Amino acid sequence: MNKTRSIVLASLLASVGLMSSCNSGNMRRNPGKIYAPDMTYSRAYDAYTSNPNFADGQTSRVPIKGSIALGHDLPDHLVEGDTNAYKALTTSYRFNEAEIKEGGRLYMIYCGICHGAELDGNGPLYTSGKFAAMPANFKGEKYLAMGIGTMYAALKYGKNLMGAYSSQLNVKQRWQVIAYIKKVQSENGGAPFALGVSTATEATTLADTTQAVQH
Ligand code: HEC
Question: What pTM did the predictor assign?
């Protein structure tokens, strides 16, 4: 009995001693037990560590030139200033109502301030006199007749005093905004709307097709 008691006491003391020697005071230096060392100490190169296998010594790599992220559009191959290519550019995107509505939401975020909620070029930034250049009036004859490729190029590269939106809007979003403009134009004397699908379920976009192939 005495013997058992002293063994228990000794082991208790020993464990208290062990704990206090590792974590003394407020400093907690002991990381605790590691059950999966391979996870704690990765065998792979971590993203921001140096890497002797590449000439530039970096572990994080940029995608191989020409690669397209899953769900993203094929490149448009436009060259800035090549207006003939702008005019010829078209898209196979066809949007359902919800997607066009989203285009309208994006329009109000990025374009309405200049081009106006009514798309007539009378956005608050212009009417307040703070922005000198008259934004395009999408309900005017010139812009009613403007092709979607030319519009796309304006979004991608900007146009005179208007900045580019390629960093704010991805390819699909750019076409969505254009679809919204074209939809409104079609109701205001423009050509019949051609970027829509008849029902929500028929919506097929390039992106969806790519995903379907990959799955
Ligand atoms: C800061 C004001 C401003 C914003 C924001 C703006 N634009 Fe413009 N936009 C202009 C001005 C000014 C012009 C006229 C440029 C010219 O012809 O000199 C223009 C022209 C255009 C044109 C005609 C391009 C051409 O080739 O003549 C299109 C299309 C267009 N904008 C679309 C958009 C869309 C879509 C957005 C939102 C993603 C947008 N703009 C945001 C000011 C703006």
Answer: 0.72
Cα–Cα distance measured from residue 70 to residue 116, given in angstroms and rounded to the nearest whole number: 34
Measured from the CB, is residue 119 less than 6 Å from ligand 1? no
How confident is the model over 24-63, as pLDDT tens digits?
667 777 777 888 888 888 888 989 999 999 999 999 998 8
CA distance 106 to 171: 13
Which amino acid, 135? P
Residue nearest to atom 18 of ligand 1 (CA): 160
Of residues 24 and 174, more confidently modeled: 174
User: Where does 2-146 have alpha helices with state H?
Assistant: 2-22, 37-40, 83-88, 97-110, 112-115, 124-127, 141-144
Domains of the chain from N-terminus onward = 83-214 (1.10.760.10)
Beta bridge partners of 49: none
In the chain, what percentage of residues exceed pLDDT 90? 63
The CA 10 to ligand 1 mean position distance, Å, reads 82
Residue 136 near ligand 1, beta carbon < 6 Å: yes
